[in-house]
Structures are given as C-alpha cells and as structure tokens.
Design brief:
With about 300 residues, the chain is of the alpha+beta class. It is built from 11 helices and 6 strands. It has helices spanning about 30-40, 50-65, 70-75, 95-125, 130-145, 150-160, 165-185, 190, 195-205, 210-220, 290-295, and strands spanning about 10, 20-25, 245-250, 255-265, 270-275, 280. The strands form 2 sheets. The chain has a 4-stranded antiparallel beta sheet, with helices on one face. A two-stranded antiparallel ribbon has the order 1-2. It is elongated.
Length: about 300
C-alpha cells in the first residue's frame, strides 16, 4: 500500500465468500486469532496429490455425464469416495463443489431412467426388453458404488427379477453391464479384464442382441480380440458344467451373481466371479438350490 492510508485486510474463501474483512492493523494475538478462525471456516485443504486427483476425476466424470454415459459417470465419480463422502468433501474448492453437483445430478438422472425402465418392463411388457433391462442393471451397478443409493435401487431390481418372462434377457443384460463396468474404469489394470468378460458374453449368448452388443463394445476396447474375427457358428458355446460359472442367489433375492464354486468351509462358500474376483458368502443365506449345489460339491473343489 502506498502512502499512509489505513490498511485493509480481507480473507476470501475458495468459493468467493468473504470470511473476514477489516480496516486497520491487528495487534498482539488478534492476527493469529483471526487467522485460526478464518482457517476453520475455510474448509478442508487438499494435498497437491489429492487436488490433482480430484480435478482429473471430476473432469472425467463431467465429460462422461455430458455424453450421456451414466454408467461411466458413476464408475469414475465413485473414485472420489477415496477422499470422503461424495456429497460432503468438506471443501469449498471448485472441484469439490463440482463433485457434489455431479453426484446429485447423476442420482437424479439414474432415478429418472430407472423409473422409466420399470414402467416399461412392468406395464408395457415389451417384446424386446434388453434395452430397459440394461438401464435397470446399469442403475443397480452404479448404485452399488454409492452406499446411500443401494436400498432404493435394489427394490426396483428385485421386482424386475421376479418377472419370469425376463429371466433370459436379464442374464444377458447383467453380463453386458458387468463388462461395461470393467471397461469404464480409469485403471488400466481393471480395464484389461474387459476383453475376457466380453468374450464370455459372446460365447454364452451366440446370435443374440447381447452377442451383437458385446462384439460392438469389445471392438472399442480390444479391437484385436481374437473372437471378433470368428463367426458365431465357429465359436464353442459356453454351457453349464460341474463346478463352473452359474447364477447364485440369496433366499430373499436381494443378491444375485454369476460365479464359480471354489470351496466351502465353516458354513461359508468361496466363489469366483467371472472377472476373477473371489467372494465369500454364508451358505445359510443362499437359495435352497444353491445350498444343495454346495452340499453336492463340498468334497470336490476341482
């Protein structure tokens, strides 16, 4: 400041709000007291590494949402959870505020899509249900990434799964969505699994819409995949075998997955999902068919 004017002191938060303003010098303990009070109101401070991660992740999520890819938006935005609750990172920095806005907008759009898909499936009984089923299972997949969303979405998927006319198409939709989730990851290590999952879809559902979708999407993530050069008639179809991949479900129907039996011990069964992930489930919560399956194979893990 030039001259002998009265000094002006302002503290402005990252979101532009002025949290202190005053004229004249602060003496003694007044300055550190003011700074501490301002610091408490200024919100969380990220490390350089955290700030860079947040900015990149939010930008990628924003682009995905703008393109209408809600599944990819959810997969990418879920990574922000490493820094704290998605709807309250405790920071007034622009990327943190934008993260919350994307979180809320994604929830709004997912809810809208699920409502439309549910109405189409339960009220219209469409001849080709794969498209609305893909919406349902994408919504379920995204909701599993955000803890606060699970219950509402699960009720819709449970209702859809009770409709026997959609059983075959639901298996196709779940398989496609499983591959899409892996392909949408920002991690190259995880994305590399997409080829094998799409290949599994093509083998399981030859000459179906799922087959066509899987081929189209696989060509984008792994254009040199061997199976893309093969005709459906030349591909050995995957069929259920002993100790191979099958659908597992709980008694209540609130959990369902395709996995391979590995072993059982102490009332629990270890399963391997199609993406290679292993999970452990209490045998007592499984459906009666699944419990019988485990019982028959309790001495055979080959």
């Amino acid at each position: 400041m030039k001259g002998n004017g009265i000094p002006q002191l302002y503290v402005v938060r990252a979101d532009g709000e002025q949290i202190y303003g005053g004229a004249g010098a602060l003496n003694g303990d007044d300055l550190p007291t003011m700074l501490l009070a301002s610091l408490k109101r200024s919100g969380r401070a990220f490390t350089n590494q955290e700030a860079d991660f947040l900015q990149r992740t939010v930008r990628a999520s924003e682009l995905a949402l703008q393109s209408g890819d809600l599944l990819k938006t959810g997969v990418v935005l879920s990574e922000v959870g490493q820094l704290g609750p998605h709807d309250n990172l405790g920071s007034f920095a622009k990327p943190a505020i934008k993260s919350k806005e994307l979180y809320l907008e994604l929830k709004k759009q997912i809810d809208g899509k699920l409502t439309e898909a549910k109405a189409e499936l339960l009220d219209s009984n469409p001849e080709n249900p794969l498209t609305p089923l893909l919406t349902v299972y994408e919504g379920e997949a995204v909701s599993k990434l955000f803890p606060k969303w699970k219950s509402a979405t699960s009720s819709i998927t449970r209702e859809i799964k009770k409709q026997p006319q959609y059983t075959a198409a639901s298996e196709q939709a779940e398989a496609i969505v499983r591959a899409r989730v892996v392909a949408a990851s920002l991690s190259p290590r995880i994305r590399n699994r997409a080829e094998s999952i799409y290949t599994s879809v093509i083998r399981r559902f030859p000459n179906t819409e799922a087959d066509t979708l899987a081929r189209t999407e696989l060509a984008k993530v792994a254009p040199d995949a061997k199976i893309l050069s093969m005709q459906s008639a030349d591909i050995e179809v995957s069929t259920p075998k002993v100790s191979t991949f099958r659908t597992w479900e709980t008694k209540k129907g609130d959990f369902k997955t395709r996995a391979k039996y590995l072993r059982q011990k102490a009332g629990k069964v270890q399963l391997m999902k199609e993406d290679g992930e292993t999970i452990v489930v209490d045998i007592s919560i499984l459906s009666s068919d699944d419990q019988s399956y485990v019982s028959e194979r309790s001495g055979n893990t080959n």
